[in-house]
Amino acid sequence: MPHPKKKTTKAARNQRRSHHALKAINLATCESCGKPVKSHHACTICGHYKRKEVINVAKKLPKKEQQKIEKKKAKEANKELKKVKKETTKLKKTESKKEDIKEGMKSVVRGDK
Ligand SMILES: [Zn+2]
After folding, report:
1. CA of 58 to the centre of ligand 1 (A)
2. pLDDT tens across 61-96, in order?
3. CA 8 to CA 74: how far, in whole Å?
4. How far is CA 82 from CA 58, 76, 95, 99, in A?
5. To the nearest whole percent, how much of the chain has pLDDT over 70?
6. Considering the chain, what is the average pLDDT of its residues?
7. What spacing in Å lies between the alpha carbon of 47 and ligand 1's midpoint?
8. How far is the CA of 102 from the centre of ligand 1 (A)?
9. Interval between CA 49 and ligand 1 midpoint (Å)
10. By Cβ atoms counted within 10 A, which residue in 2, 17, 29, 31 is the most buried?
């Protein structure tokens, strides 16, 4: 068995070990959920990377949790659909009003009553 030639002094040993301390990891924040994430890594909580879903986190959860998440997603989709529908109806109403006004102007020009 090889042996060290001389005893390493406490000072030499401690000087060597002075570089062994662990450094804190540099964490970034997730753009979609705001939780701390390793930079250049997908978020382990929501599975997003650069605002795109890369990992389906729900798949790794138990079935009940998966169902909850699916329900939430469905609710959000429904909300967005309702918003879009509202906006389209508003637009239609304003357009119909504009057409009514145009027709009224035409009738005035024609001299109808
Ligand atoms: Zn996230």
Report:
1. 13
2. 788 888 888 888 899 999 999 999 999 998 988 888
3. 67
4. 26, 10, 20, 26
5. 99
6. 89
7. 6
8. 52
9. 8
10. 31
What is the tens place of the pLDDT at every residue in 29-39? Answer: 999 899 999 99
Contact 51, 32 (CB under 8 A): yes
Cα(36) to centroid of ligand 1, in Å?
8
State the pLDDT at residue 113: 57
Ligand 1 ion local residues (Cβ < 5 A):
30, 33, 43, 45-46, 48
For residue 75, what pLDDT is reported? Answer: 93
Count of positions (residues) in the chain? 113
Question: What are the residue boundaries of the structural domains of the chain, listed by start?
Answer: 6-55, 61-113
27: its two tokens: 């964490």
Q: How far is it, in rounded angstroms, from Cα 90 to Cα 88?
A: 5
